[in-house]
Task: structure prediction
Amino acid sequence: MPVSRPLEASALRDPLGSVLLYAPTDWFDLLADGDDEEAARTRCVDVINRSYPHKAAGPRQAYADALMAWRQVLLSQGVIAHDVVAVPEGEYGRAVWQISAGVVEVSSVHQDVDLGEVLARHFGQELRGRQVYTESFPTEMGIGMGVISQPELISVNRTELFPEPRTAGSTRPLAKLGLAVCLACPPGGGRGLMVVGTCLDAEQVLSMASVVALIAGKSTFLEDPEPTEDGASS
Result:
């Protein structure tokens, strides 16, 4: 079911309305409580207690504190949703996904936007020659582009989001992850919605990418009502 989320002032230079985010409402969204810190901590403590019932109170408190700290980082960066999917070990393995959505500015141009270049700029890496799959598709906002990659964890301090093709003798990565990114925006640019998904199991990236694409493809921006002369919304 779609859920309406207000844009945070930090998401764009000016607040421009709300996002009708097409996303499940029954998963854990770290940012669902907005500015209500007390409600957010209550939910974080609850999810930690249910996830780690056999841990002592001290570690559970530390986990909740870490979630709250991460929540502040996301809010400060203009992220409007950060959803977590955690499924226990089953027929298709254990699923641990994180899917975030945020509003970004896309340069206005007179021709179709080169979304590949837009995505590359936001991530600070070139896509050309990398081990990535890209695809353009229509969205409710107009146009969209998706990128699928399997980032390589090179060391504890370095992750290559869009790895180059491996060569003989190259260092074996510590692990591979799954990454799916979708950007939806009007053809002329302006504000766009970027949805980013990561998963611990790189083989689950296609399944996760379908959810990321659905959120980006079906979500829309809602304009705030124009205020009337008496200050009320029309």
User: Anything to note?
Assistant: The CA atoms of residues 103 and 193 lie 5 Å apart. Confidence is low (pLDDT under 50) at residues 8-14.
